[in-house]
Amino acid sequence: MLVEAQDISVAIGGRPVLDSETLSCRPGTMTALVGPSGSGKTTLLHCLGLLLPVDRGRITIDGDVVTDYGAAARRRFWRDHAAFVLQDYGLMDEESVAFNITMRASPLGRRVLGDRERLAQALGRTGLAGREEEPASHLSGGEKQRLALARAIYKQARILFVDEPTASLDAANRTMVIDLFTDFAASGRTVIISTHDSEIVDACESRHEVASGRPAERLVNNQ
Ligand SMILES: Nc1ncnc2c1ncn2[C@@H]1O[C@H](COP(=O)(O)OP(=O)(O)OP(=O)(O)O)[C@@H](O)[C@H]1O
């Protein structure tokens, strides 16, 4: 999906946080949102994922003006097209790893339903094979992060929004996660990542520097 933001601005509590950000994230590519701490990377990511409204400007996805969407259209976008790996991971701690990935269970909640093959693939790709029956609360910070990624893989979403994905990962898992994003993009999906990690930035086809108050167009294409 092609995500385009034009001159978007956001103020929180009366304070400008984003000022006239303009960028374009193409399908089949990874885009890094970069900038110093507090520059607004997470805020921009949340706006592009329709989690936060903008005060000015507009965002289109495949040409649709999504900044006009009401609550029902936003929910449809999240359900049908988007996957999020955010800083709090959005997991259900008391539920099993498998349930957190598939989000489906039998009526009594004892048996996880869903596509077994896709589940096995998501577990395998994130190094969580064999952990499916454990409650998410038993996982370490880095494992929770990989679980959130496993859910995105299972969902086969067309667009992936990721916030600081390598913050709690060791070197081996960091490489695995970067490979996962690269594969996501190679299969035609759009990947948007807020990050400080230069290894991720190097793996991205485009980089957008978020810096409130500076001139609008700062998109740099590495290609
Ligand atoms: N809910 C909120 N209430 C008040 N201020 C907020 C809120 N969310 C973000 N901000 C402010 O907006 C600015 C940008 O925050 P944001 O989290 O987007 O930055 P960031 O570039 O992602 O930072 P970091 O790299 O440290 O994660 C910060 O000054 C922050 O304090």
From TrEMBL:
Keyword Nucleus: no
Domain ABC transporter: 3-223
Protein name according to UniProt: ABC transporter ATP-binding protein
PANTHER family the UniProt entry points to: ABC TRANSPORTER RELATED (PTHR24220:SF685), IMPORT ATP-BINDING PROTEIN (PTHR24220)
One function term, GO molecular function aspect: ATP binding
UniProt keywords, alphabetically: ATP-binding, Nucleotide-binding
Lineage, broadest ranks: Bacteria, Bacillati, Actinomycetota, Actinomycetes, Kitasatosporales
